[in-house]
Amino acid sequence: MTKNIFLSRPNRYNPVYTSTVKRLTEELRKRSLNPITIGSTVFSNEYPTSAIRKEMQACSGIIILGIPQMLVRNGISKPKTKFEKEVNNKLYPSVWNQIEGAMAFMLNLPTMLISEKDLHNEGLFEIGTLPITKHEYNLKSADWMNSSEFLDPFNEWIGLL
């Protein structure tokens, strides 16, 4: 029986990540898992958060795929506070990864977090924010999916579905 899983990922990304998105999608389908992504596999007239909630409620789990969506070359974090600091050449994931990950946590969905190794660790990408392990790889190539460092936790996650 096929199970739906929510695949939190950007719909627009640097083409260098295409092989990872394609291969992960294929790997899920090989295991009778149907990846659902708002704006890619599901299109709705609802507000995005309403559509996400509706789709997630029909899913057995979620994979959050952290692909860079923003590069801050020169910026300031927490401006005009005592915590102000410079931010230089930092890569950030999609804000939708953060929203969808938090919603999945609230729905108690088994979660696997896969991140480009160079993403800034903030929000759910910060270790200890959610009770999950973050798996960091070079997502510019799909070769990481052949490693036991991926396959062992991936199979463990599938066992929770």
Search tags:
alpha/beta, 7 strands, 29% helix, 161 residues, Rossmann fold, two-stranded antiparallel sheet
The gist of it:
This protein is an alpha/beta fold and 161 residues long. It is built from four helices and seven strands.
Structure description:
By secondary structure, this protein is an alpha/beta fold. The protein has 4 helices and 7 strands. The protein has helices spanning 18-30, 48-56, 95-106, 148-160, and strands at residues 3-8, 33-36, 61-66, 70-77, 85-92, 111-116, 134-137. The strands form 2 sheets. It has a 5-stranded parallel sheet with strand order 2-1-3-6-7, sandwiched between helices. Strands 4-5 form a two-stranded antiparallel ribbon. α2 (48-56) packs across α3. The longest helix is centred in the first third of the chain and has 13 residues, at 18-30.
